[in-house]
Write a structure and sequence with these properties.
The chain has six helices and 13 strands. With 280 residues, it is α+β, with helices and mostly antiparallel strands. It folds into two domains: 124 residues, Immunoglobulin-like; 123 residues, no CATH class. The strands form four sheets. Strands 3, 4, 6, 9 and 10 form a five-stranded antiparallel sheet that branches. The N and C termini lie far apart (64 Å).
Length: 280
């Protein structure tokens, strides 16, 4: 099921994208997410908001249902999940939701409705009353997209591999995204020093700032220009999960700021490393 602002119905639908109702609002928000990573079970707390009397009466009388249409492409989970009008907590089966998950709030007809009062509806529906068929979509809220699973917690460094590149000029570094991992290419004359420095407590934060920050900036820029070229790479899934989790917009990234965010403010590692300030 795909519902957006271009979807049209022969009956009124309460939505922020339509003028079908004169007054009223509807939404359901996922306010907290609890993930048990050991079992891949997800539990959510939701808050329901429905301010439209005729729809509330249908739900209370059992003629309509309210809940989420939940979609997870990674696990092929696509299901209408009834909730009710009260704020509540509910859990999904272990492993049902992994990766990018869409929660679309909906109200739908559970039974045929013979006479639905149109007093609060736009004049184009003619006033009076109309019949609603079972399964009819009666209200649609704003979709929420959440990132579920371990991938969003992975360090960005984990999707990079440091590779010696004899063809590079002395002291040169380049990025190659055309591999399962993003390759940070390092000139032969500095390859051993680079790895040795990276392994030292005082050296790692310097390498993060001098090499990995610009590398992440370049990757963000490449995805902004030609995202489809890299979506099949193994590293892309983790990189996107991390971006979604941190609110980084791949369509319009702030290269400098977002790279620092993805690397967890790496300059702070320099500031807090006392070895770098000895002898001051």
């Amino acid at each position: 099921m795909k519902i957006n602002e271009r979807t049209r119905f022969p009956h009124p639908v309460l939505s922020s994208e339509s003028n079908d109702y004169l007054t009223g609002e509807f939404d359901i928000k996922v306010v907290t997410v609890e993930e048990k990573l050991a079992t891949d079970q997800v539990t959510v707390d939701v808050v329901v908001s429905l301010a439209e009397q005729s729809l509330r009466e249908l739900i209370v009388d059992g003629h309509a249902g309210v809940g989420f249409f939940v979609t997870c492409l990674d696990t092929y989970y696509s299901r209408l999940v009834p909730i009710g009008l009260e704020d509540r907590r509910f859990s999904f089966d272990p492993g049902a939701l992994v990766g990018s998950v869409s929660f679309l709030p909906m109200v739908w007809a559970k039974k045929n409705v013979g006479e639905f009062d149109l007093a609060n509806c736009h004049a184009e529906f003619g006033g009076g009353a109309m019949s609603l068929d079972i399964g009819s979509v009666l209200a649609v809220g704003e979709a929420q997209r959440l990132t579920i699973g371990r991938e969003k917690l992975a360090e960005i460094e984990s999707i990079f591999s440091v590779v010696q590149a004899p063809d590079l000029r002395d002291d040169e570094l380049l990025v190659n995204p055309d591999s399962d991992k993003i390759q940070l290419l390092v000139a032969s004359n500095i390859y051993q020093d680079f790895n040795r420095f990276r392994g030292l407590p005082h050296g790692r934060p310097i390498v993060l700032n001098s090499a990995f920050v610009p590398a992440v900036m370049e990757v963000l820029d490449l995805l902004r220009q030609a995202r489809s070229e890299y979506e099949g790479r193994r590293w892309f899934r983790i990189f996107k999960a991390k971006c979604d989790y941190l609110g980084v917009d791949l369509e319009s990234p702030s290269l400098w700021r977002d790279a620092q965010q993805l690397l967890n403010s790496p300059f702070g590692n320099i500031r807090m490393n006392s070895q770098l300030w000895e002898g001051e």
